[in-house]
Fold this protein.
Amino acid sequence: MTYTHTLILGGVRSGKSRLAERLAIESQLPITYIATATAQDEEMQLRIAKHREQRPDHWDVIEEPIELAAALSNVTTEHCILLDCLTLWLTNLLLTDDLTLFTREHDAFLAVLPSLNHRMLIVSNETNMGVTPMGELSRRYCDEAGRLHQALAQHCDQVILTVAGLPHTLKGKPL
């Protein structure tokens, strides 16, 4: 059986993670949650702790900030994979001192997606709907996020933009 791959985009606190969690539950498949966040400061530590508390205990959880392709490849049974959040993963790659890591992991992620026969829900922040940011790293982040989202939109069967908690289907079957 082939499962749908869905990209869920939205701004900060747009409801995209809540939507992804609802769709994961509705899939009636076992859920593997892949978290990419890293706790670099106290506020982020609290956010991560809150997410851990709210997540159902029966979900399999993989916390992987860098090697996303490897983590995805290790999910071997029919699961719904909820990946949250792609732009945090992108940030982790851009902030590393290893100049080859970004290209290696980015390319590995895009290469592994077509081989994954799972229901996939990929959550990511849409960052390119405003002013071009100041600073080279910020501009690169927005450029890389935009390119990654375009590549994923081509791959995914369904693309949803979430605004104010309301999902807007851009591609595929409407909700």
User: Anything to note?
Assistant: The first strand starts at residue 5 and ends at 10. Helices lie at 16-26, 42-54, 68-73, 86-94, 101-112, 136-155. The chain is about 40% helix and 20% strand.
